[in-house]
Amino acid sequence: MDMKTKCAKTCIEMLEHFWLQWLGYLVLLDFVQHYPQLRKLTLSISIKLKDFRVKVGNILPVLPKNNPPQSRTEFSGMNDLLTYLSEDYGKKKS
User: Is there a domain that residue 39 lies in?
Assistant: First the structure.
């Protein structure tokens, strides 16, 4: 497995894990409205989510800023975007 595929797979797994945690947190917040004794638990979960965000931020590579943009940034629709990507894919930048 090449590095790009491995990185993409890892990112997808981390995002899935994050969204499951976030969804659980939202459900818990709904319960807290009805059961105030759960407030301490939500505080500990929010701290864990902040730690998770920091850890993920440290693992992911830093993307360079594209300022000013060197390529197209707006597309009329999904077909336009996919056509642009398929034509641009594999071209060497000069």
Answer: yes
